[in-house]
Specification:
It is a single chain. The protein is built from 6 helices and 2 strands; from the N terminus they run αβααααβα. By secondary structure, it is mainly alpha-helical. It has one domain. The chain has a two-stranded parallel ribbon. α3 packs antiparallel against α4, α3 runs antiparallel to α5 and α5 packs across α6. The longest helix has 38 residues. The protein is elongated, with a radius of gyration of 29 Å. The two termini are 57 Å apart.
Length: 169
């Protein structure tokens, strides 16, 4: 019986030595408190609106060509109809290509977002890393994006520490 208790005690003690320290951060909270992030978001929104305006102009052009075609189609020869249809298709294609160029998965908006946000994210990552190395944390979980976290104690949230390390707060 003593051996069993000794083994259990040693097992509990040894797992305590290897206990890992987890903390959480709230990236939404951190980003909302960094002015450079807000400025970058505003820049992206303005650029996005400009590009959306360009696309809407092309779509409107295609719609106008189509309306004009519909009203005049009875009076057009087969050759003229084909030319007008081609012009309409070309305008629609141009709008579609421009939309993909600006807003596609590897489009200009994605590239601009990367160029503006990467330095901010790198700065946050380095601050989190320094805090973790200093306090011997083994894992950091972003509670703003981890949908499976039901509860985390406020005492393990280092978001304020990260902002302080970055010089904000």
């Amino acid at each position: 019986m003593r051996k069993i208790l000794l083994i259990i005690a040693l097992a509990c003690f040894s797992t305590g030595l290897y206990a890992q320290k987890y903390v959480t951060v709230d990236m939404e909270y951190i980003l909302k408190n960094i002015p450079a992030y807000e400025r970058a978001n505003e820049q992206l929104n303005q650029q996005s609106k400009r590009w959306q305006g360009e696309i809407e102009e092309l779509v409107q052009k295609a719609e106008n060509l189509y309306k004009q075609y519909q009203s005049e189609s009875a009076f057009l020869s087969d050759e003229q109809r084909a030319e007008r249809e081609d012009a309409i298709l070309a305008a629609e294609k141009e709008a579609s290509e421009l939309k993909r160029t600006y807003f596609g998965p590897t489009g200009e908006l994605y590239k601009k977002r990367e160029s503006l946000m990467a330095p901010i994210q790198e700065e946050i990552y380095n601050a989190v890393k320094e805090i973790c190395e200093l306090k011997k944390y083994t894992m950091v979980i972003d509670r703003s994006s981890a949908g499976s976290i039901i509860y985390s104690a406020p005492s393990i949230d280092i978001s304020s520490d990260v902002l302080t390390k970055l010089g904000y707060n």
